Amino acid sequence: MKNTAKLMKLMLWVAFPLTMLSCSDDDSNNMPENNSIAAIASRAPQFTTLVSALEKADLVTTLDGEGSFTVFAPTNTAFSNFLTANGFNSLDDVPVAVLREVLLNHVVLGTNLSSNLTTGYVKTLGKGSASATNTLSMYVNVSSNVMLNGVATVTTPDIVADNGVIHEVNAVIGLPTIVTHALANSNFTTLVAALTRNDQPDFVGILSGSANSPFTVFAPTNNAFGDLLTELNATSLDDINQATLENTLKYHVVAGANVLSSDLSNNMTVTTFQGQDFTITTTGGAKITDANDRMSNIVATDVQCANGVIHVIDKVILPLIN
């Protein structure tokens, strides 16, 4: 009997931890799966480079935590193309500070499902060197699919997470310059045509670079250029001579300053890249009075770029032309 009792105690001693292990395994299997943005990305084979980039930039915790985010997530192929285009052999070659801002430029606050996206500007969490306070703007175009800054298309929308939503995109969205936003917005096609006319200076190189930056650009819409042609009795931009067009375009640019709408004041005199001044008034809405006493309304403000800011105007302003 004593031997039998000892055997029973031994069997219970062995069975007890096995039972506890079995219960522990059951509890583990019943634990809810982490469905944060970071966790979903970590389980998706097309986002392995993105996850590595988030780890390097110390952003995993942000996208794994509380909050509500919309992430436009580039695929591995998108990152490979980005690295090649910018002369990097791997993620290790990208400065961490630059990588962090590029990644944040793919993140928008709030849960924005594809059905809620509209054509226009949204703010990302990224910052360029032009402003310490105004985060970068992203131009969303939903006229055909969903295109971002004119460079990335949403290929798989609405991957819903517990703390937001992921939209898979086919390109890395680099930090936008003045030129990036001018090209992305179809309301600026005439402005782009003027800036790139073959008898003009290299405005694309100037406004996409850092020399003389940051820039503040007062950008006329297509309709504004149409009204100018009517005013000048011209049929197209080709009817405007080289010097007049160059001086007019430079007159819309301020060099060396990222002037936000909050910096504008009544009767403010602004010296332009062309050399002449214009005056801003803020009473009854922000307006520009040019050197010829012509008035233009500022109809949209603070489109933030990495090397400056754009304000949209509804009339082309003109300097004095000798």
Automatic annotation (TrEMBL):
<feature type="signal peptide">
    <location>
        <begin position="1"/>
        <end position="22"/>
    </location>
</feature>
<dbReference type="Pfam" id="PF02469">
    <property type="entry name" value="Fasciclin"/>
</dbReference>
<feature type="domain" description="FAS1">
    <location>
        <begin position="175"/>
        <end position="317"/>
    </location>
</feature>
<dbReference type="GO" id="GO:0005615">
    <property type="term" value="C:extracellular space"/>
</dbReference>
<protein>
    <submittedName>
        <fullName>Uncaracterized surface protein containing fasciclin (FAS1) repeats</fullName>
    </submittedName>
</protein>
<dbReference type="InterPro" id="IPR036378">
    <property type="entry name" value="FAS1_dom_sf"/>
</dbReference>
<feature type="domain" description="FAS1">
    <location>
        <begin position="34"/>
        <end position="173"/>
    </location>
</feature>
<keyword id="KW-0732">Signal</keyword>
<dbReference type="InterPro" id="IPR000782">
    <property type="entry name" value="FAS1_domain"/>
</dbReference>
<dbReference type="InterPro" id="IPR050904">
    <property type="entry name" value="Adhesion/Biosynth-related"/>
</dbReference>
